[in-house]
Amino acid sequence: MNSDGLTFSASPPAQPAGRSAPRIPPGVEYHRVLAGEKRRIGRGVLAIALLVAGLFASQLVLAVGAAFIDAQMGNTNPTFGGTDYTPLFLSANLVSIALLIPWSILIQRWLYGVRGPSLHSVVSQFRFDLFGRAILYVGPFWLFLSLIGPAVMPLRDVDWSTATLLTVFAAGLLLTPLQAAGEEYGFRGLVFRVAGSWARGPRTALALGAVVSGLMFTGVHLSTDPWFMLWTFTLSVSLAVITWRTGGIEVAVVVHALHNTLAALVATVLHADPTPALDRSAGTGSAALLVLCAGVVAVTAVVWWRTRGSGPALTPAEPHSGRV
User: Fold this and answer.
1) Is 4 part of any domain?
2) Confidence of residue 37 (pLDDT cuts 50, 70, 90)
3) For the chain, which has fewer Cβ within 10 Å, the N-terminal or C-terminal residue?
């Protein structure tokens, strides 16, 4: 399909010989790949519970490991109430969330018998051409949004050595995109599909999938601030709509990764203390987050407009196993 510059390959990937897997249904939208004659709500709840449990378990294990190593080096990272925002603490947190990518793939394969590549897109491939165009289109706009916060809000300076600054900068640049991708595979991939399989009609499934994934995404951030909760829910629902329209998680990964990475890099360049961002209790957010909400809604509207001629991308007309 082709519509105003957004191109989706309709040809299924090659299937190697070997044991067959459950077929991906032909001609369905991304969020309906796991739908069947039975709703399998209990299985879906188990899938979501396993996803969240895996997320917090990996965070705990890596955080404890990072805290132990930091303690040996004389640092006290925030894992157990410390104040040293160390490169190791940052890296452990980012990697723990990035692990949602293989974990989501394993859960889908185990509970639904659908192979991992289908989480990329409706053609069971990660479409790097679409990914690259999304960076070019969204990148400059989101860079502008990333500069608004530091320009209007007071920042607290942090006294880091040059080596620490460079290490934090490198970790943010290399690992933050993977962290954002992990959340996309987990929530706009697996949870969106699981909840979307509970409804009979595709539109009801879309609404249910977007709301459930939005609530779960907001919940795992453990925030009690209404402004921050509004932002995370708006971000999640918007990215779910983008995933539905484009038929994959590529554009959603770009938007999420740009937001997280640019915010981290701008803060590092300005020598701003990132520790306050870890506090999401009531009163820490502000109406300034409405700017980000408006920004992600605008990106969603553009994606919808650019796919107006084709509608949401569908799985190939000929069924295939989802192998690559």
Assistant:
1) no
2) confident
3) N
